[in-house]
TrEMBL record:
InterPro entries: DUF4178. The lineage of its organism: Bacteria, Bacillati, Bacillota, Clostridia, Halanaerobiales. This is DUF4178 domain-containing protein. It comes from Anoxybacter fermentans. Pfam families: DUF4178. Residues 26-157 form the DUF4178 domain.
Length: 169
């Protein structure tokens, strides 16, 4: 390489920014949803018997939500918010916001990726219960050690989201 190419970087290739989607967001990316911009401040990838799904913690400065994504023969997306619902055990039905949520799935998952501010570690195992109401809303119950967390969610379509990369990856 010549002196001028080394000096002015002519020999270096620029890295191409990867187009973002609900399965490759990175901490620092921006997600626009419902007329609000959120920064991805955390990313979790769950694995249950080789089936993976993703959860991204999003912060707008005034509000924090979770974007969940999975590909189970179709792309399934949901927005989740923490609730003040406290459980000591997990029943088969839960009443919340005037709706009855029915148990759809229960299992254990290993965290294979934990980036940013998520409160979990790679390799950590958690137990989960997925509930759904008759109108399609969700309750996600997760047991981390002895602590049970409940989040309320609802389905969204990918066209409701816009992704802007915040990094070069």
């Amino acid at each position: 390489m010549s002196f001028f190419k080394r000096l002015f970087g002519g020999g270096k290739k620029k890295s191409k920014i990867q187009k973002r989607n609900p399965f490759n967001l990175q901490v620092g990316d921006v997600v626009s949803y419902d007329l609000e911009d959120y920064i991805v401040i955390g990313k979790l990838v769950y694995n249950d018997s080789s089936y993976e799904w993703y959860a991204y913690q999003l912060d707008s400065g005034s509000k924090r939500i979770w974007l969940a994504s999975e590909d189970d023969d179709e792309i399934i997306l949901g927005i989740y918010e923490s609730t003040d619902l406290r459980l000591t055990n997990v029943p088969n039905e839960i009443e919340y916001k005037g709706q009855i949520f029915y148990l759809e799935e229960h299992g254990k998952a290993t965290i294979t990726t934990a980036d940013g501010r998520v409160g979990a570690k790679t390799g950590q195992v958690m137990e989960y219960w997925d509930f759904e109401s008759d109108n399609g809303d969700f309750l996600s119950v997760e047991k981390w050690g002895n602590e049970i967390e409940v989040s309320y969610g609802y389905p969204i379509d990918e066209h409701e989201l816009e992704f802007l990369p915040g990094s070069q990856e």
